[in-house]
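Propose amino acids for all 198 sites.
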């Protein structure tokens, strides 16, 4: 069994902009009837928040298929603050990252031979992410070209993202592609989407 989530991570918003943007997005979703202002902790297992906004009367407008009358979605948790986000189930490191300067791929977990990150390769990236979380600045060196690249510019594999704002939809039916597009348009930024299970 377990609890499923879909996550939308804004990978361009700054730490300073994240709070006001989060409030604008919540206000928009409330106006659209997708969520209410009521908060609940039932079924919310996000990393840094333990409450989310209860679905609104028109929540079905955000999903691809709402034909199952027994499927009632859970709250939408809004995560504000610089952090890394991982989809899937139980992973904590990225599989790889691509340098935006040279296109070189740095592999951290060499699937299917390995299922854990090579600590020597991952450590500079892990340290850079920790610096970014604390200060808003953090860069990791590219092993291929030597460039020092901010962690927010690395092209992480699809199950890993760094960003200062994320939205966890707990227990919702799969969100529709139209909703994702509309959500991105309202954010005004590039996003990464994850699915996962706790």
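Proposal:
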């Amino acid at each position: 069994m377990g609890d499923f989530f879909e996550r939308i991570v804004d990978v361009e918003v700054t730490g300073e902009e994240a709070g006001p943007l989060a409030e604008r997005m919540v206000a928009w979703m409330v106006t659209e009837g997708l969520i209410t202002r009521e908060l609940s902790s039932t079924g919310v297992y996000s990393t840094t928040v333990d409450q989310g906004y209860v679905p609104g009367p028109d929540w079905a407008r955000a999903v691809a298929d709402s034909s199952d009358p027994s499927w009632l979605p859970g709250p939408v948790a809004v995560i504000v603050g610089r952090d890394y986000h991982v989809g899937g189930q139980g992973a904590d490191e990225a599989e790889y990252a691509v340098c935006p300067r040279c296109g070189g791929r740095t592999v951290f977990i060499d699937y299917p031979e390995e299922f854990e990150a090579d600590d020597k390769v991952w450590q500079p990236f892990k340290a850079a992410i920790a610096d970014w979380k604390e200060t808003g600045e953090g860069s990791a060196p590219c092993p291929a070209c030597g460039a020092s690249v901010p962690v927010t510019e690395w092209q992480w594999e699809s199950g890993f993202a760094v960003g200062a704002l994320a939205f966890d939809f707990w227990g919702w039916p799969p969100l529709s592609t139209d909703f994702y597009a509309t959500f991105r348009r309202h954010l005004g930024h590039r996003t990464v989407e994850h699915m996962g299970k706790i």
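The mean pLDDT is 94. Residues 15-31 form the longest helix (17 residues).
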